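hey can u check if this looks right to u? its 960 residues, i copy pasted from the old doc so theres a chance i mangled smth
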Amino acid sequence: MFAALCVIPLLVLAAPAARAANSVTVYYKPPGSWSTVNVHYAPTGGAWTTVPGVAMTASSCTGWYQKTVDLGTAAGMQVVFTNGSGTWDNNSGANYSVGTGIVAISGGAVSSVEPCSTSATNTATVYYKTSWTTSYLHWAPAGGSWTTAPGVVMDEEACSGWARETVSLGTATGWQATFTNGSGTWDNNAGKNYALGTGVTTVNAGVITANATSPCVTAPADTTAPSTPAGLAATVQNTTVSLTWTASTDNVGVAGYQIIRGGTVLTSSANAYADRGLSARTAYTYTVKAVDAAGNLSAASSAVTVTTGEAAPVTQGEMLGGDPRKDSIYFVLTARFYDGDTGNDRGGSQHVASGNAANNDPMFRGDFQGLVDKLDYIKGLGFSAIWITPVVLNRSDYDYHGYHGWDFYRVDPRLESTGASYQDLINKAHAKGLKIYQDVVYNHSSRWGANGLFTPTVYGVRDSQWSWYYSEKVAGQQYDPLQENAKGYPYNGDLWSGTAPAGNTCPNYGTPTGGKSKEGYTLYNCQWPSPTAKMFPSDLYHQCWIGNWEGEDARSCWLHEDLADFNTENATVQKYLIDAYNKYIDMGVDGFRIDTAVHIPRVTWNRRFLPALHDHLVQKYGAAKADDFYVFGEVAAFVNDKWNRGSVNHSAQFYTWKERKTYSADDATAAIEQFTYENNLGTGNQPTSTNAFLSGNAYHAPDHSQFSGMNIIDMRMHMNFGDAQNAFSNGKDSDDSVNDATYNVVYVDSHDYGPNKSSTRYSGGTDAWAENMSLMWTFRGIPTLYYGSEIEFQAGKQIDCGPTCPLATTGRAYYGDNLTGSVTASDYGVVSSATGNVATTLSKPLVKHLQRLNQIRRAVPALQMGQYSIDGVSGGMAYKRRYTAGGVDSFALITVSGSATFSGIPNGTYVDAVTGDRKVVTGGSLSISLSGKGNLRVYVLDQTGNPAPGKVGADTTYLK
């Protein structure tokens, strides 16, 4: 070793011309806990230094260490760093690759600017709004490398709720950033990263504010009042007064408005307000004042006086009531089921582009008249409840499905007809003993906002390119989807402005983006609403895209560009939705299917929406009947496991439980607190229940004291219904974590997905469908069938493609051609007469199977409301069920598609509801021999006072 060291200088002195003068000065900023810093390196093509490398010296730039290395002929080297005590920074195993000259390494980022150099003048400070205990900044200067994940700890002094970090950009003038809690939760701006500049920037709920003031600096007291609202105008519809005015301005910002009606002060965050429920034929005078965040009030606007009209006819109905588990549910997309009135058909702006026009198939085709006309078909199949898609007035280019709500207080006129209003449908369904479950949306409105709450004003121009799209403004004209222009667009003059509206916060309003539409037309900033364009007030709408579908932002960001995400933690939003849906309760609907329930935190459901539902139901029906109103939520967990990727907050069963902790009074704060609390507790510390399970052979009174009020769609069974056995095994595995799984809605596929998140309608074959139905109609839960599945309608077809292909080619195709003709149902599952195509439909083997299953289920209470057990049961899909209450004691032994043996059961006579076979049990055991996929046995204990029904219905292809 010593001899070698002596040789090197001799070589250098002997041949100086052969040696390139390559060197590199490495600057390194270690973690704050390091007191010693060594650099361990290897020139390109050369050997590594001896571990732990060579010591670095403290630089004149505080916090940095430096070392100059002679590279000889090498043009670069590999570098790692260590504190000499076993802690290493090796760039996450990749090492650092550096060249010659100046290299600065900090937090995994590599730059070529000497730290603290006067040439390195560009710095940036970012404040990040967060609820995380620790926040990391993962960043890269423009043209430079990213820090090593998870980045650098944001540990600079800041105020509560904010994290802060300052970075040196060298000569770069921009940089990219993402944020993480260091435990797998990231905010990467929905995959786009945050593009930041120099100076101070704040990032709050996806909104970037450049050249910002520190959110932690107390601003001078604001004593300047906003400008006086101008142009107050009022319109009257029955007993509702709709007010609009020109937005006020303020030196800091307008926080909202006070609407003064007599001695009553109302509030609004936007420059519009709908005053509902006033007295008929009464004069009202209004003025408006603007208020800023400091509480400064403007002068009052000029007054406007209006007189209300006659009260609108009161729409009242009464739900049927009764235990919802007694029902089976038929799910229809109203606009695609049956066309009872062609006068309300509408193709919309995408009629031609989608290919629907070529098929003479407008998107809005089916209607309430069509449902009324075919109620006997649904009852003839054996169903006693109908789940219909949302009925509120929609506003979108392709909104036939109902999930783009714009006016939550009005029924969409494309669904109604003379003599077939929504109220008429409810009343006529009830007259036939059929319940109506209304699909409702609390999470979002259309991209055009919600009428009566807030609607954004977008940029528009009626020039040679865009006059076809933007309606000419007509004073007082409102959106009416029944009035379309030649291109299928209804009036939209209420939505756009050629100049920025007062109070506009959308940057670069009306300036060209540089992009072109598909037609080649100029696109403009603020031409269409989006979550990050600052076109919606943050108190009413969220301002970001979802980045992590199992993260906290799944409740606080938009999930699609057409679905503006309500800030459901805001009291004004809550009231708007609660009052709207109370209207439909008053009409007599029997329950709500809650769309996108998982995108609202459970604590908000439990604090606000569910209690409001219950209180209104109690007021209308009394406490006992109020509980018959059936609420089931779509908590979309598209996984095959019990807990959604380990996130309890995003698992279906989580929503069936009350809160077990008290959170902050502020709903937004409480939502974050609850997410964090339950997430930290994890899957192993969630509540459990025996409500779905028998105790041996005995039924026990269920404990619903911790029930939230929301039941769920059984997402786990749905995801596993590629095979009935798989669905059965997975379903029962989750039941101990559901408050009461006997209330689960169970289906194979829907308008969104097939099993395993398939984008096509179920196509497992008729035998598999028969088996799936036999399981659903006899196992715990409420069986539900998507329209047309009774004849395998559109099996294997893509469920939805938006307007990119004709509806006729999808799983949402029009079903009415299969229903033409007449049909009369004399009972559930019993058709007394049928003619035409509907008679052919009703003759299908799977329809006969479905009818008989409904008949059997209605005859055996244990199949409707019973708890279940597999104790002492052998067989693939075999179980025992019992329901005991109010003088009813129903005990049944069930096996699907295969043989089974039941041990330890009560002695007595058991009668099969499928064949009528009688078996006498004396030794506590019963064996059933069964073959045939989809075939079924339901042996019911024949008891005094609770006799077995005997054979129910006639043999079918599958039940025999």
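The chain is about 15% helix and 25% strand.
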